[in-house]
Design a protein that fits this description.
This protein is of the alpha/beta class and 271 residues long. The site of one zinc ion (ZN) has 5 residues, from loops.
Length: 271
Amino acid sequence: MKYLQNIHTHTYYCDGKDAPEDLVKEAIRLGLNAIGFSAHSASYYSDYPLPPNGTENYIKEVNRLKGVYGDQIDIFLGFEYDMYCGIDTSPFDYVLGAMHYLYMNGTFIPFDRDIANMELQINTHFGGDGMAFAKRYYKELADMPRHIKADAVAHFDTITKLCEKKRFFDYECREYLDAAFEAIHALVEKIPVFEVNTGAMSRGYRTVPYPTAPILREMQRAGAHLILTSDCHDLRTLTYAFPETLELIRSCGFGEIYYLTKSGFKAVPLY
Ligand SMILES: [Zn+2]
Ligand SMILES: [Zn+2]
């Protein structure tokens, strides 16, 4: 099956490498029907390197590209919205709801920067108990619809990003899966679209995409809709590992994948 688009991409307006225009050109070269930009939400607790007026300039530039390339490819102005950031989402065509921080005792705690940071946070806030950390993450994530109106849930199990190299918790055991499954069922009614993300593979953190297969199978049972992205930070990875990931999605029981159109998400058969 032909893969159609990627709506999780970062540019030099946040922590990506490329100009939005170069990503559009690459998407056209690859024959995609659409590209969506999803800059990180800048907020008072985020230290992503957004330049001054970064969000404003980002919006302007993506809207300019729509005018220049709109007859060749659909371009969507999106946002990877951190769950607690409280920013107005009205300028955006779509919002990916993401969680990169826990909120505990009045403090925002980043947990996915690198292995040393994750270990430090688990030791500091959970007495070294990685499973307690995982349960806390899913409990907060399940609450996302109370904080934002997201169109899709980004990297649902992002806490496994660094866990192939060092296991802070067993992400295949019953206790972990129960916590994750509970979050799927809490979210799916309000936000039915979940992302399958190859970004951690392209950056060398993982050998397989997330969500992991047991979580994908539960998403299928729960009636979730999937989109495929590469969480692209470098245009060379715009469709990273898409063919094998579509195979994985199929093997987890899905018969279709969703893609974004000007009238919302639409299904396309995987066969
Ligand atoms: Zn993210
Ligand atoms: Zn991202």
